[in-house]
Amino acid sequence: MTQPQGAWLESITLFQQLRDGDFVGAHRLLTSASDPTATLHGIARMFHVFLQSEPPTKLDHFMDTARTMAPPPPLHVPQQHIPAARPELRIVPSLSTLLHTHCALIAGTTRAGTPFVLHDPYLEATTDSTLTFSATSPLARQLPSCGTVEVVFRDNAHTTDFRFTGRLTGYTIELIDAHPHPTGDPQR
User: Superkingdom, according to UniProt (predicted)?
Assistant: First the structure.
């Protein structure tokens, strides 16, 4: 996925969150967007198309009403406190099934604080404590500079996100014979 495609998908997701009234989710997405300016540009384009379909009198009334209203109250975004990783934390079978059946997005920040969002369709749970992915994926290229990582699994049928956040403690490149990769890439 290219950077413009990723920003466009973030714009669509942000637009859906705004439509649903999920302002906290929209705020989180925008603050962690790979390119916030491109994401906002995409939102502006969608609003433009949407507003062009409305009658001018309705838009004039909306703008007049908006000018007379007080600004919205400040957005309260709860801080997420993530406990340190514990050795007993395991990837249970239900999580493994989730990994294999839903769209997985990897979001993270580099040690310099630069955010990134990647899609890895071949993310798998091969053991109860290990996630694997292709060594040729964008995630593998991004890992050496990771500070924090968040894995997001989107279940579009139920409009649910599952998020797992933590710090990268290490990674290894191995040849895996027991778990063949769908594209034939033996490195993970």
Answer: Bacteria
Q: pLDDT tens digits for the chain (188 residues)?
A: 567 777 888 888 888 888 888 888 888 888 888 788 888 888 888 888 877 787 878 878 877 887 888 877 776 655 544 444 444 445 566 656 655 555 555 666 666 666 666 655 556 655 655 666 666 666 666 665 665 555 655 555 555 555 555 555 555 555 444 444 455 544 44
- Give the sign of the dihedral formed by CA 128, CA 133, CA 138, CA 140: positive
pTM for this predicted structure? 0.36
Domains in the chain: how many in total? 2
DSSP code at position 112: T
How many other CB atoms are found less than 10 A from the CB of residue 176?
16
Same domain, 101 and 57: no
Residue 158 C-alpha from the chain's centroid: 17
Q: Please enumerate in sequence order all residues whose Cβ is within 8 A of that of 44, keeping only pairs 6 or more positions apart, or say none.
A: none
Residues 105 and 49 in one domain: no
Give the residue ranges of DSSP H helices in the chain.
Answer: 3-19, 23-31, 36-52, 56-68, 93-101, 138-142
CA distance 161 to 41: 24
Query: Would 15 be classed as within a structural domain?
Result: yes
Rounded distance between C-alpha atoms, residue 73 and residue 55, angstroms: 29
